[in-house]
Amino acid sequence: xxxxxxxxxxxxxxxxxxxxxxxxxxxxxxxxxxxxxxxxxxxxxxxxxxxxxxxxxxxxxxxxxxxxxxxxxxxxxxxxxxxxxxxxxxxxxxxxxxxxxxxxxxxxxxxxxxxxxxxxxxxxxxxxxxxxxxxxxxxxxxxxxxxxxxxxxxxxxxxxxxxxxxxxxxxxxxxxxxxxx
Length: 181
Prior knowledge:
The strands form 4 sheets. Strands 11-12-7-13 form a 4-stranded antiparallel beta sheet, covered by helices on one side. A 3-stranded antiparallel beta sheet has the order 1-6-5. A hairpin with a 4-residue loop joins strand 5 (41-46) and strand 6. The protein has helices at residues 61-82, 140-152; strands spanning 9-10, 16-20, 23-28, 31-36, 41-46, 51-56, 85-92, 97-101, 104-108, 115-118, 123-126, 132-137, 163-166. The model has no long low-confidence stretch (mean pLDDT 92). The chain is of the alpha+beta class.
């Protein structure tokens, strides 16, 4: 039995969970999410205990792996529509700046051209100052994916530490040529 999959997911206050066919919909104050699940997994809502229970139909290898996965996805959906998720990025480097122009994020990160990225639907992006980016939304996967795409535009380099990094991320700096002698 999956250790993660057998734990019931509590439904938080203000969150509504409905299941129709192979689709689960979660609605809360921050937004609305839906997920289609595999027929090998069965998801039920228990109104008495205000929880969602995930179970599998058989003990095949694929069913076992999907059991814990869908339980984690349901938990992330419930927490996302209630509290939301947030990733914070910072730009490190001389002349590295970012700004918002409508639904586009513009960054100058030491390249010849200014990088522009469209902000996906369902995400809120803010720039409190020129060197910080806050990405928030109710979909954990979308928030993390967009933050990773922004970071991949200019990863922190190991010699001076310049680049786009998560707030609090430690970059181990390598010694330069002068350290050899």
